[in-house]
Amino acid sequence: MPTLDDILENVGEFDRFQKQTFFVLCLLSAAFTPVYVGVVFFGFIPEHRCFSPGVAELSQRCGWRLEEQLNHTVPEWSGHGAGFSSRCRRYEVDWNATGVSCTDPLGSLVGNRSSVPLGPCRDGWVYDSLGTSLVTEFNLVCEDSWKLDLFQSSVNAGFFIGSINIGYIADRFGRRFCLLNTILANVVCGTLLVFVPTYLWIVILRFLQGLVSKGCWTAGYILVTEVVGPRYRRTVGILYQTAFSVGLLVFDAVAYAIPHWRWLQLTVTLPSCFFLLYYWCLPESPRWLISQGENDKAMKIVSDMAKKNRKKMPSHFEDIKLEEEDGGKQSPSLIDLVRTPQMRKNTFILMYNWFTSSVLYQGLIMHMGVAAGNVYLDFLYSALVEFPAAFIIIVTIDRVGRRYPWAAANLVAGAACLVTALIPEDIHWLKVIAACIGRMGITMAFEMVCFVNTELYPTYIRYVKT
Length: 466
Description:
Strand content: under 5%
Strand order of the largest sheet: 1-4
Number of helices: 23
Order of helices and strands: HHHHEHHHEHEEHHHHHHHHHHHHHHH
C-alpha cells in the first residue's frame, strides 16, 4: 500500500497547490509579529520627568530654554539618560511663590539646593514623545513600571497555556479547524484591545490573544510542512519562519509611521480579518486525516492537489496509509510524549531548547526596545540578521546534519549575550552589534528546534509536542 509521500512524488511535492498553501500561510506567519514582539512599540518608554505645577509659567516668565528649565527644576538632571531621581522624583517647593529668582530659583526658595526635599510625582509625568504608548497613557513608570512587565507576562502565559490546550485541539480536531478558530479569536481580541479603557482589561485581552495566537502560528507551521513532500519539508518550514522575520520589518515600518499605540494595534489587527477567507482556500492536512483513519477525505484532497498541479494521479494509488503506523485512528495524548525511553529523551531535550530559545529570543528583542539608541533602527538591525540565520541553516543542515549547527548556534547566542551584558552602556554601537550576533544565533536555534520537532514525532502528536 503506497504512502502519502509516494503519491506526492507523482502529483507534485511542491507544485502549484503547495505553493499557494505556503504563500497564504506565510502571510499568517508575518501577521503573528505584533503579538509576539508588540510590547517594544506598544509599551515604548520615552524619556520622562515629573510634572510640577507652576514650572511652565515660571519658565515662560524667565524665558528659559528647555534645557535651562530642566537644569533648574528637575532633580539631578544631566540630560537624557538621567537616573531614577530625575524621572521619578520632584522638588517639593512652590514654584508659584513670589520672588522666585530666574537665575537660581531653588536658592531663592530654600537657600541650600542640596537640602531641598524630594517627593513622588503626584501630578503625573511629562513625556518626551510625539506619540502615545501604554506607558504614557497609563503612566507605567517608576513605582508602576512592573505593570508593563505584567503586560508582556500575560501574553507569555497565554502562549504557555495555549500551546498545551490548542495543541491538543489541533491534533484532535484538525489543523484547519484549529487555524480558523484561532484566527477569529485573535481578530476579536486584537480589535477589543483598541477600545477597552482600562489597564486591567488590556492585560486580560492580551492574555487571551496570547492563548490563541501562538497556537495559530504553530498550526500554520505544522500544516505547511505536512502538505509538501519530504524533500521540501525542512526548507518550507524555515521559510515559513523567515516570513515572520519579514513581518518584523513591516511591523517596524508601520510602528514608525503610526506612533500612537491604539491606532497601531488597529492597523496590525484589521488585515487579519482577511485570513478568515482561508475557510475557502486552505485544505486540511492529508497526513492528519490519514492519522485519524479518514482516508477518503485525504484522497479527495490529494485529488484536488493533483488537479491543481496539473498532474494525473496514477490509478493504482487508490488507498494510502500513514507512514508511521499501519493504520487505525490515532488519538493524541501527553503520555505519548514520554511513553518510551527515546521519546522521553527527545521530549525533555526539546522542551529545554524551546524554553531557552524563547526566553533568549524575546529577551534580545526587549533589549532593543529599552536600549539607549533609536528604537526603530535598533529593531531593524536585529530583524535583518534573521535572514542570514535562515540562509545558514538551509545550506548547512543537509551537509553537516542537525546537531552541530544547532549546538554552534546556541553557543554563539549565549556567548554574544554574555558579552552584551559586559559592554558599558556608553558604547551603544558595540552593544547593538553583540546583541545582533546573539539574535542571529538564537534565531538559528529557534528555527532548528521547530523543524527537528516535526521530524522526531509522528503526525498524531506532532502539535501536542510543538
